Amino acid sequence: MSDKQINVDPGEIAKFEQLAHRWWDREGEFKALHDINPLRLEYIRKRCSLTGKRVLDVGCGGGILTEELARLGAITTGIDLSEAPLTVARLHALEGNLEIDYRQISVEQLAETEAESFDVVTNLEMLEHVPDPASVIAACGRLLKPDGRVFFSTLNRTPKAYLFAIIGAEYTLQLLPKGTHDYQRFIQPAELEAWCRIAGLELQDLTGLHYNPLTHRYWLGNDINVNYLAYGTKME
C-alpha cells in the first residue's frame, strides 16, 4: 500500500501529535479516556479470554488500553500512525516493565502481512477519526483468526450525540479539546453492522457508554444514542 492509499486524515494525526506529551496526565486532555478505561476493559474481559492470547490494539495512541491488556496476560501489539504518541507509549511501557510490540503502521498495511494472526482485535475511539472506517473494519476482519473476537467503540450520529459529545463534552464541560470530533464522521450502528458483515464479522452486542456531568460517573447501559461499544465474532 502506498502512502497515498493510507487511510488517514493528516489533521487528525496532527491533533494527537500535539497532545502526545499529555497522554498519561490523568487530569489532562485525555482524562476521559483514563476514566472510561476500566469500563472498556471489563467489557472486553467479560466476552473473551486474554491470558496468552495475541491481542492487537488498533489506534492505540499512548497505550492507555494497550497496557491494561498486557497486564492481563495478553501478548499485545499496539499500532498507530502518530509517531509522538507511540514514543510516549513505548517509554511508559518500559517504565512499567511491560512487553508490548508498538508499531507505526496502518491496520490495512498490517493485514497484508499478518492475516489471521490475532485472537482479539480492539479498535476503540478511532473509527470516527478516519476517512474510511469500512476499510479499517475490513482489515480488522482479515487480521483475526477464524475464531477471533473484535471490539469497537465509537459515537452514534444522532442529535443527542451532537449535543452531548460535541456541545457538552467539548464546549460546555471541556472534557475534551474543542474540535476533537466531527459530527459527520459519527457512525450509526446499522452502518457499523453492515461494514462488519461485509468484513466477515458478526456483531453480537451493542452497549452504550454513559456519563453524568454532575456526579462525574461513567457507566455502561442500554442507550446507544451517544457513545457505544460493540463486540463481534469472525464468521465461520
From TrEMBL:
Name used for this protein in its record: Ubiquinone biosynthesis O-methyltransferase
Protein family according to the UniProt entry: Belongs to the methyltransferase superfamily. UbiG/COQ3 family.
GO function term, MF aspect, one: 3-demethylubiquinol 3-O-methyltransferase activity
Organism of this sequence: Nitrosococcus halophilus (strain Nc4)
Keywords: Methyltransferase, S-adenosyl-L-methionine, Transferase, Ubiquinone, Ubiquinone biosynthesis
Matching Gene3D superfamilies: Vaccinia Virus protein VP39
Residue intervals passing through the bilayer: none
EC number: 2.1.1.222, 2.1.1.64
Entries under Pfam families matching the protein: Methyltransf_23
Catalysed reaction equations from the record: a 3-demethylubiquinol + S-adenosyl-L-methionine = a ubiquinol + S-adenosyl-L-homocysteine + H(+); a 3-(all-trans-polyprenyl)benzene-1,2-diol + S-adenosyl-L-methionine = a 2-methoxy-6-(all-trans-polyprenyl)phenol + S-adenosyl-L-homocysteine + H(+)
Classification via SUPFAM superfamilies: S-adenosyl-L-methionine-dependent methyltransferases
CDD domains assigned: AdoMet_MTases
HAMAP family assigned to the protein according to its UniProt record, in alphabetical order: UbiG
Role this protein plays: O-methyltransferase that catalyzes the 2 O-methylation steps in the ubiquinone biosynthetic pathway.
Pathway(s) the chain acts in: Cofactor biosynthesis; ubiquinone biosynthesis
GO annotation terms (biological process): methylation
